[in-house]
Each structure stands twice: as structure tokens, then as C-alpha cells.
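Here comes my example:
=====
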Amino acid sequence: MKKLILIILLFITSLYSRELQKVSLQLLWKHQFEFAGYYMAKEKGFYKNNGLDVTLKEFNNNNIIQDVTSGKTTFGISYPDVVLAKSNGADITLIAAILQSSPLALISLQSSNINSIKDFKNKKIMINNNAIQTASITAMLQSQKISINDLKLKQHTFKIEDLIDHKVDISTCFISNEPFILHQKNIRYKIWDPKDYGFDFYNNILFTSGKFAHYHPNIVKDFKEATLKGWKYAFNHINETINVILKKYNTQHKTKEALLYEAHILKELALYDNIPLGNINKTKIQRIYDVYNLLGLTKNKINFNNFIFDDSKVYLTTREKNFIKNTTITVAVSKNWQPFTFVNDQGKIDGISSNYWQYLVKRIGLKVKYKYYDQFANQLNDIKNKKADIIYSTGATKDRKQYAVFTKNYISFPISIAINSKNIIKYGSFNDIKDKKIAVGKNFTAHKLLKERYPDIHFVFVNSIKEGLKKVANNEVDGFAEIRPSLIYNINKLGYKDLQVNINTDIMFNLSIMVRDDYSVLQSILNKYIDVTKDSQIATIITKWENMQFKNQTNYKLIIKLLVATTIIIIFFLYRQYFLKKSVKEFDELINSTLEGILIFKEGVVVDVNQSALDMFNCKTKKDAIGKNLFDFVAEGHKETIIKSLQQNDTQPYEAILKTIDGKEFYALLKGHNLKSKGLRLSSVIDITQLKQQEIVLLEQSKLVAMGEMIGNIAHQWRQPLSVISTISSGLLFQKEMGVFNEEKFEKGMNEITNMTQFLSQTIEDFRNFIKGDREKIIFNLKESVDNFLHLVEGSAKNNNIRIVIQIDKNITINGYKNELVQCLINIFNNAKDALKEKDDLTNLVIISAKKNEKDIIISIQDNAGGIPDDIITKIFEPYFTTKHQSQGTGLGLYMTHKLITQGANGSIQAVNKEFTFENKTYFGACFIITLPLK
């Protein structure tokens, strides 16, 4: 019998092992922390969880690229020379760049008196004789007019002792390894890093063959996902990871201290410049190719669009495509499970889960029909009996897995307990209440999960959340268990002020999609789309319901406050009317008590003023003002503004420049109102000169912030052209020395240098125009102005992997302030850039478009960063409002943008969140809409 059981267990184990996809990874070197992420992905089961059985191969002087392209190994790790291999015809697809900045550099001892790269001449250097692998080193040397032939080359022994013993003067090194040994020996050294000279390459690039990526894209996605998860774990648990390496992967016999040093250096290089882990930027790959090309090492051009694996795509099998095309899915929908899924007043499905499901349906293109249920148990029965195909708002439990399959989780919430507020002290935690009477919906998900974990809990079954909460309120039970959002929503909706949700169990409710067990193909489709759904999309849905639905009860306090305020206002006006009728003297006292100046006109002549107006216009007595024409107090150039205001019975507050009786001008905020029964015009005036001065200071601050950004942008933009110019010139010399120089390459190089210098000149000219800041109203071409903006931010955009798309007719012109519009675009772009940095996506977009109608020009700046949270979108134009830390933002950018558009250009600006389609893909983000009047 025991033998039979053992055979069965072995059989089951072998079946399970065959379910895992066997793949292999060829490491770039011997085992060390350099490959820690792969170790931890294997040790922590991340590969296994993604259905992969991964074999890690230690380096053994083999040709990694050839092994991968031939199929000898599935995945490989490479130096940047993988780009050159692609140019030379290798079938390669890049998956991830683990090190955003290369650790490969040159090292010399301080005692060697080498103070600059120019001192390298005639020195002994230990370097790999493969120029392909050391291209960044070669390019750095040539940019300083040092050729490899100027050095005495020594074959690399990979022993730092040769440098210490002065057998060589310089050596290549990994800054994560060799410097540690010198530290230990207290030997001072210097590092010569290519990135300090503009040659910043990737390293430890994960890749596979193009053929494998084409036929097995989902395996590639699963491998990448598990690998990056492994790296995140390794960097967050460095000590644990080092212990694993010491125990299982330490073939080089490194010390714990050496591995710790290596770990911290590599973590800095992997997360360099806050770039997402594993990110590959097409522009940076292009630059690596350009360096190889200038060194005369490339053979063919590369199609960079197909070179990098796109894991944002969903790769469907033929079977999955046919299922979507030919199948209508019957969806079982709960009619009243707020706030997850219910039927709203318009008869449509709504709620957190419903909104997410509708997003999936639209993106996948599913054909669906809905069946509505009052009882959840009936939904389950229909799934079991194949009368319905899915429930999109439930969780997996043991008994349900007997007749259904489940997708990956798309959101999680805790199972919580609602209790009477009178029992807060009595029940402080779940342990205090789990042995009491707890109500729960029978066969609800909360019931299933609690029963699995705590089978001895005494449950009181109810048929609905409403019934459960009522029992708690009436003290019939000690608590009611349900998913936290459901409790909060229903307590607010039903008005149970004495119920609180302050106890969480240790059980998380993971929302997933339940699928009938013979529709595994549908489960696979849904999982693929759940994988590529952005966290920002989920966050937007949750935020909407937190802000809109969980606060649904009537705000009686607010109503009472409004009633009180309205009553006070009514009493005030009655009181004021009574005393106005009673005494003109008291009227004078009233208007003299106001801070604003009040002037009363009749047919354009001043008939009365208050004391504040006298002070404002520098009048000693009322005789100095009464009887004067109102235009005696208006500065030249602003009379037309006053005339327009007089044509309105009641004006909105507006600005104008007024003057005192002795001719001194000041900024004022005015509001006018006609007293028709009296034939009088009442104008209130506030002196805003000080505010205007503060506004100018704010504008200058905003300008300085923008200038700081611009200087950073120029640094980014100049580095590559200067590197290209330097590399071209030194590359031509190198080609001449190597005997491969020809006129065609010389002419091409000179043309490229000319283009680069013109680009640098144009960048400086654009920056000069921007900081010049003449506030001159001119007619300018919008497309050309936006192109100037593009020049100023292009470096920053490339550095942050942002694609800026311009969709503007070249014939649109604007009569306004060109520099101010450019500053507004820069401010909006900087906010979009900061938001895009937070999202983990290969596609970062900023789309600028414009259209013209009969009255206005409408400019839209759209990004795909996930949108602005609803609770702050109305505050973003307020001064000093910022979501950043104080060291990162002042909150002035969007405030000044609003001022420049609304007051400087007489236009309007608004921010909205919207979904949009670009190149057949759907995105979601913030859109700033600027409206400028044509006249």
C-alpha cells in the first residue's frame, strides 16, 4: 500500500513538473551579486509561480549571443555589444536592461600620477583586446584624442594585483568589484568612467532570440516579470540575498563584505537617475549603435522599433482570438452589491468591479450579455450549471474551485468587522471579537474566507448587508463581517452613525473573475489583459468611488450651516435697509467702515465717496472728489476698459490702472453696479498694487524655476551632440590609423558635425529668446512657437523616455505674448514629466494639438500618466499648491500658467482627466486645455 501511495505521489509530481516550461539563462560571468535577481527569482519561487523551470548557466568562456540565437540556451545576459551583434545580422530581441548605467570603467592608482586621460599616452593598460566589448572605453579615449595605439596593451589577467604591483598603469574594471579590493588594502585610486564623458551605456542586458520572442511572447513576458520581481526582492533584502549566494552560488569564494559592497554599487547603477528597473530606452540604444557606427564596427542599420520586446502588448493565441470573435459571454451580475457591482438608477451596471469589467470588455472587444441576480447563491448555481459564464466580482474559495476557474487578482481589500461604537473599547482587535456572535452573509465571500481560516467562529447568517448592519445596530450581534468598502459604503448610505469599521481581520479579499471551468481559454485571455492593466487605471476607479460614492449620505451639517449663513445675510440686508432709510448719516458710517473704496456716480460725475476712496485717491476732503468726472481718476490707456464696464448693469471684478488727484497711478480691482431706482452707479475699488508687485515676484520666481529646468535640459541636449562631434572627429582619426578611412565617410562625418553645431546654435538661440522675456505683444506662428518649446525640453524628454507629439496646423497664428505661452507649455510639460516618472510604462506620451474656430484657438496638452486625482484637480492652479516634497516643487508653475493665460492673454485654462486613442492604443491621463481668443 505504501509503495502504491509513493508511486501515485511520484506520478503526480512528474505531472506537475511537466506543467512547468523549461527554459535556461546563460549568465555573463561567474556567480556573484551581479546576478542576484535571477537567483532570488528562482529561490523565492517567482519563476515557478509563472510556470517556468529555469536553469542558470554559469559563464564558461562560451559565446553567449551565439548560444541564444542557435537555441542552445533560451535567454542570455550581454554587454552592450548585443546591439552590434544585431547590426551584424544576429536574430536578437532585447528584454530588459538590468544596469541602467554600466559599471565598466578604467582604474589607475593615485600613485601613478595620472591626472587626466591625456596622461594615458604610452602607459601600460590591461584591457580586453575585444574592441567591441570595450567600445565605451574606446570612445571615451578617442573623445580626449587618445588612441588605443597610443597605449601599451597588455592581455587582461583579471587580477587587480597586476595593477597593485605596477605591472600595468591602467586597467579596465567593474566599479562594483575591483575598487573593493583596493579599499581593503587602503590603496588610493582613480576611476575613469565613460559616462562622465558622455558615453553612458547599458550593461547586463537581458535578451532572447527574435524567433523565440515571436513564437513564445508570453513565456518572455512571464520570465521578465519574474526576473524583475527577483531583482526588486534582491535589492530590498540584500543581506538575505547575500546569504543565499554564500550558501549556493559562491563559486568565486567572495567574502560577505565584498558581496555587500558589490550589492550597493549595483543597486545604484540599476536604479540610476530614478529610471524604472529594467527599462530600455530606444533613444539610448540608438546612441550605443551610433558609437559603434562611428568606430566603424557596424555593418547594417537596425530597425529599433522591433528590437525591444514590447511587454505592454497582449499576445493572443489563434484559439483565444477565435474565442473572442465567435463567443458571446453571459455575465452574471449582482443587482445590489454596492459599491462593487449593482444596477444604478439609469438601469446600468455600476460600481468598482463593474467599472473595471467595462474597461476590460472595451479593451478586449468581448461580446457580452448580462443576467441580473438578487441572490449571490443563484449566480453561483448558474456558473455551476453552465447557465452563466462568468462573475466578475468575486473571490476564489476551495468549494468554488470545484466547478470554476479564477483569473489573477485585480484588486484586494481586507475583510473587516463593523461594530457598534459603544463597543470600541470592548473590542479593540479581531482577537477580541472572533469568539463572539458575528453576523455574515450566508455563502458570501467573507463567509467562505472566514470559515476556511476560522472554522470555529459562531456565525449568525443574514441574507443581506442591510440586515447584518441592522443586527449590529440593535445589539443582536457583536459584529458584522464583510469586505471593507462594502461596510463603509452601506453604513454611510443607511445612515448608521453609531456603527464603525475599525477592526480588520488578517484575511484579504482578492477580487478576481470567476469563470466556468470549461472556459479556461477565457481565463487565459482575461489574465493577459489583467497583467497589462496599469495600476493607475485601478487607482482611478477606486478614487472615483472613494470620493463620490462612499460619501453619499446627506450632509445635514452643511445644510444647517448654509441655512444659518443665509439667515444671517437676510437679517444683515434687512438691518442695512432699515438703517439706510432711517439715516443718511448712518449710511455714511456704514460705507466708511468698509476697507474698499466706494464711489457713487450719476451720469459720470462723482456724487459721493467713502473715506477709503478719499485715502486711495489722495483726497483730503469729499470736496476734492465730488463733482469731478470719473475719468479724472482713470489712467490713460484704461478708459476704454471703464467705458465697457459702464455698459453692464452689474460687472464681475476686473482690473484697471487708476490715478490719484495728483496723477500717481496704481493697480485697482473694481466692481460696478447700477442702482436703477436712483439713477446712480456704485463702484467699489480695491488697491491691488502690492498684490501686483507680489505677482511680479512670483512670475520671476516661476521664470527662475523654468530657467533652472532649461539649464538642465540644455545639459542633457548638449551632452549627446558634443559626444557625437567628439566621437566623429576622433573616430575619423581612428579609421585613418586603422587604414579604413575613405572620402565618403569623411564627408558624411563632416556633414553630421555641421548639423550638430547648427542644432547647438539653435538651442542657445531659443534659450536666449526665452530668458530675454520681452513682454511685447506680437503676431506669431503657433507651430513655430511650439517648435521653440520643443527645442528647450527635448533633452529632458529624451532622458525621461517621453515622446512628444505635435499635431498643430502650421498656418495658425496668435496675437499675444510668445514667451509667456512658451513658459506655460514648459510648466505643463514639467508637471507631466514628473507624473510620467511615477508610472512603470515603456510608452510615455505628451501630445500637443491645436484647433481654431470662429472665435478661439484651443490648445490641448495631453499626457498618459494616469490622470490627476479627483480630490486635487480643482486645486492645482492655486499658488504654492504642490503634491511634491518642498525640495522638489514650489507649486508656482501651474499657478503662474493660470495667471499668464487668464489675465495676460484674456484666455482660459482647465485641466481634465480623459481617455484618448493614439496609434490604435487607448490611454488615460490629464489634459490641459488652453483657450485663447482670436481677437
In short: Residues 93 and 307 are 5 Å apart (CA to CA).
